[in-house]
From TrEMBL:
This is Flagellar hook protein FlgE. Belongs to the flagella basal body rod proteins family. Residues 177-273 form the Flagellar hook protein FlgE D2 domain. A flexible structure which links the flagellar filament to the drive apparatus in the basal body. PANTHER family: FLAGELLAR HOOK PROTEIN FLGE, FLAGELLAR PROTEIN. Residues 7-37 form the Flagellar basal body rod protein N-terminal domain. Its main location: other. It comes from Chelatococcus caeni.
């Protein structure tokens, strides 16, 4: 056995325990860091070949592992912009230059420009819903934009769709009319009121039931003078609508073409009873608050109660999350070992859900870290004794010639 080998092995052991102490120090320092994932030092032996009459001591190789896939405890906050992932997946964020990263740190707040940014300065990325639901490219982050709340200022949206359900009396006589009013919105948010009039076009004969026809007309109240229709509406002998369920187009003055869905109407032996009038669009209103759905949809809630979907936040994942490359600021980038990034929406394809008003805490266990620190200290001391003994024996050997 070479004494130089003993020194080398002792140094290797001290270096390994120094690495372990380094991970413990980082873990303890970040015990209260939102979204932090603990690091650990794992060891493997490096064995050198030896002859029958001698032994060549090897060394210890340190492998650093990160418990990225282990979820930390969730704590609830009073801020709706605090987001946490419950289950698999990561938020997609970007730095100032637009480079994308993955993170579980969801403590977002609006910056001076309205962008949602976390404590490390990374911007939350999402798909804008200005043109309907986005098409996600599963293996690419193309199409993502910074989630910006400043763009949700005062807004007026024209009505394009509406619906009206209820009952029309089957016993109504030829020429009987029933009327209801609806409020919709034009391009600049002005209220437009119109009457929906149902006029019976056939007599009902209980001895010879047949399909019943109605005529629907739209008459403007404010502004007055505009009309739409007439439209034909038909019910079968069981009172279910069979023709004319969607009235289109209804051209709103200074507005958009509107489709009025009447599929919720029935014709039963009861009085006229309009139900569930629903229209989209809204008058000019300030944003009162922002809500985040579990499916990643970001809603702007206006002062008049209107809720408009503005963004949808995706989640990303990789085949081996523990092999992601950690970067400064609690973010991760994909590596060869982790596999390529896969993108989807919360609740789909094994991805978790997004919780608003919650944060994922560090997954560091302080008791475990303090135990590991004591073990590393003792092992470091033992390895230093090996090095010291080898050094003393080497001095003895060098002094034999004197």
């Amino acid at each position: 056995m070479s004494l130089y080998g003993v020194l080398r092995t002792g140094v290797s052991g001290m270096n390994a325990q120094s690495n372990k102490l380094g991970t413990v120090a980082d873990n303890i320092a970040n015990a209260n860091t939102v979204g932090y994932k603990r690091a650990s030092a794992e060891f493997s032996s490096l064995v050198l070949s030896s002859g029958k009459g001698s032994y060549n001591s090897g060394s210890v190789v340190t492998n650093i592992r990160y418990s990225i896939s282990q979820q930390g405890p969730l704590v609830f906050t009073t801020s709706s912009a605090d987001l946490a992932v419950q289950g698999n997946g990561f938020f997609v964020v970007s730095d100032e230059g637009g480079t994308p990263y993955l993170t579980r740190a969801g403590s977002f707040v609006p910056d001076s420009e309205g962008n949602l940014v976390n404590t490390a300065g990374y911007y939350l990325m999402g798909y804008p819903l200005t043109n309907g639901n986005p098409n996600v490219t599963l293996n690419s982050l193309d199409g993502l934009e910074r989630v910006n709340l400043a763009n949700l200022a005062m807004s007026a949206n024209p009505t394009t769709q509406g619906s009206l359900g209820g009952n029309l009396p089957i016993a109504a006589a030829l020429g009987d009319t029933f009327q209801s009013s609806l409020i919709v919105y034009d391009n600049v948010g002005n209220k437009v009121q119109f009457n929906v009039t149902f006029e019976k076009m056939t007599d009902f004969d209980p001895l010879a039931p047949a399909n019943q026809q109605w005529q629907v007309t739209i008459d403007g109240v404010e502004p007055a003078g505009w009309t739409a229709g007439p439209f034909a509406l038909e019910f079968d002998t069981s009172g279910q609508i069979v023709a004319g369920a969607a009235l289109t187009p209804i051209n709103i003055p200074n507005g958009q073409a509107m489709t009025l869905d009447l599929s919720g109407m029935q014709q039963l032996a009861s009085e006229y009873a309009p139900l569930d009038p629903i229209v989209n669009g809204n008058a000019p209103s300030q944003v009162d608050k922002v809500e985040f759905g579990k499916d990643g949809t970001v809603y702007a809630v206006y002062e008049d109660g209107t809720r408009i979907a503005t963004y949808r936040i995706p989640l990303a994942n990789v085949p081996s999350p523990d092999k992601l490359t950690p970067e400064a600021g609690n973010v991760y980038s994909a590596s060869i070992e982790s596999g390529n990034v896969q993108v989807g929406f919360p609740g789909q394809a094994g991805l978790g859900s997004i919780l608003s008003g919650a944060l994922e805490q560090s997954n560091v266990d302080m008791g475990e870290e303090l135990t590991a620190m004591i073990e590393a200290q003792r092992n470091y001391t033992a390895n230093s004794k090996v090095f010291q003994t080898g050094s003393e024996l080497l001095d003895v050997l060098m002094n034999l010639k004197r």
